Amino acid sequence: MRRAVAALLLLFALQSSFVFALDSFVIKDIRVEGVQRISAGTVFNYLPIKVGDTFTQARGQEAIRALYKTGFFKDVQLEREGDVIVVKVSERPAISKIEITGAKEIPKDDLKKGLREVGFVEGRVFNRSLLEQIEQELRRQYFARGRYSVRIKPTVTPLERNRVDVTIDISEGRTARIQEINIVGNERFSDKELRKLFTLQTKAGLFGKKNQYSRQQLVGDLERLRNYYQDRGYLEFDITSTEVAITPDKEQIYISINLSEGQKYTVSDVKLAGKLPMPKEQLAQLITITPGDVFSRKRVTEATKSITDRLGNEGYAFANVNAIPDVDKEKAKVAFTFFVDAGKRVYVRRINFFGNVSTRDNVLRREMRQLEGAWFSTEKVQRSRERLQRTGFFEDVTIETPPVPGSPDQVDINVTVKERLTGNLLFGVGYGDGQLILSGSITETNLFGTGKEFSASLNTSKSNRLLNLRFVNPYWKKSGISRGFRLFFQDINTESTNVGEYQTDTAGGGVFFGLPISESRRIQLGFDLEQTNITTDANSAQVAQDFVAQNGDSNTVLKITLGWSQDTTNAAFFPTKGGIQSVTGEITTPGSNLEYYKLGWLGAHYWPTTRNTSVRIKGQVGWGDGYGDTDQLPFYENFFAGGPTTVRGYAPRSLGPTDTAPPFDPIGGDKRLIANTEWFFPVPGQSQNKSMRMSFFVDTGWVWGPGQSVDLAELRYSTGLAFNWLSPVGPLAIVLAKALNAEPGDETETVQFTLGASLK
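^ thats the sequence. predicted structure below, dont judge the formating
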């Protein structure tokens, strides 16, 4: 209707814009009148007639239509003065300023970005019809968020020099709350059981949003309801109608869902058909649903996907597998024929990279397991994506496989990455205990875009003076063998800390290598030469005095480190599935001033629980001792527990044995056990933000000293809430924790903070 009215108005304008006779003539000149902001040259550019042309009625209508189409003018007239055409225009006003008030649910920046995308910005020509479209779209966006009482009032204020100010005043109103969800027609399952499937609820829930109506969430809930029935045999299940009623005040929602359950079906037969490019028996093994089973839509879909993926791994990138049902309603049975259309075997023509501004192409290419010229493999493409994500250089990695035009047996692989900041620069200046304290570090895990790592850190505090340099080339050899170097100087004085008092000066350096033995497993080998000088006095911890008396105050060791690790996680930061596991052994060579060893195991596994949440279980075990002429593990090599990276809720390094002399400070031990269970979820309101997350956790751990047996009854427990953020200056964690079984003498902390901890 609106288009018809507009067409009539335009026709009227065309007919009423001529004020001269319709006889044709040759145009001697063209003059433009009425322009203000728009130059006459712009009008001439759009005008389809020029001097020397023969003017006709049709040419005149064409000229008016062309000028109207620009959107610059609200009125156009053509007049004749002799053989001169006079183009009289009335310009539309320009937008001087756009102001949005009252918007909270949708950020103003997002709203203005949307206005820019449709061309409604300051300086552009004002178009009232476009403003009306924007108003309707805003209303639709708020309705989708359950705010049906929203009021949107655009105001246009005329200004001098043919300009206008546009104000969009938004009164968002309250989100409509769900008062009741009625399910009608269910006999096999109770209302209570079915309502558990719904995201939408009649109660607010933990974050107060479960009872806020959303059309998108309702669609998702109905799909979950459909899957629930069809996964339990109800092939003909149908949702016959869905009614959403809103009260006159537009703040309360009543939902009624009418459904038809149908019969419960069993599978009578399963067959494979079509042109199979590989042995039928191999594909048949991928079908887990068998005759006699209750029909399950999920299992049929999984079988279809398994066959498609298997064919994709063999190069049939465009394979199509359809499960065709043959329904016998009288017997309530269904037979399935999985029809396979493998298509042609597809090869990869070219691999293209996009978005890597800093990172060199060869750094990405060496992580690709899908190669150019080889046949396409779904598994290798997925593995390539996971390897790129595990580098830690990118926030996001997406891979597309468009077919090559004119070549049905070729595809290109387009890898698009979104780079993250891989360098951290920290610098701090403080004053304490009568001295100036300087600290700083620089870390670059993708040095000059080469994928090499360099880090340097400096600390001049009284308790820990440190200079540490580290360089790693992860592809020292093309086969993936890595090599790194480290050099450090450290002066530790624990007088101002909560552990037993001692002072050590250590200087050392070494080289280390990594050897890949599979896609996810590596072996590490390292050699370090260290010299440690220990200074004690009458105030030093008794454990330090005893050690110096037995082993002297200066020791040099050659240390060999051997380790094995496995990483199957799907991201370098904030993984949601897969696991990590490592076993490390460290031993000083016979003939060193001190002879000791340390063994460690770390394991963690992630399970996705929903699209945005996951669970992790993590454990750590440490064990050390002396051998040969050294009776026990040197005290400065002890394990510690407590703090934001081990057992949260307890003071750092506070759990375990204490010194035998006053003030009985913690001294660590040679045996450690740590375990954590953690449920990760998005920060409320930031579900799409991949650089931060929150978690509920339960931690436990303890440390035992030489001669002490591992006693699980001594374990300390804690629980709490954690916030993790991959900030511009490095990984940051803030913890709110509660110690669950603290004993007298334990040091507890409710709020803890750490910078630089691992986000796996």
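Residues 1-21, 429-437 have pLDDT under 50 and may be disordered.
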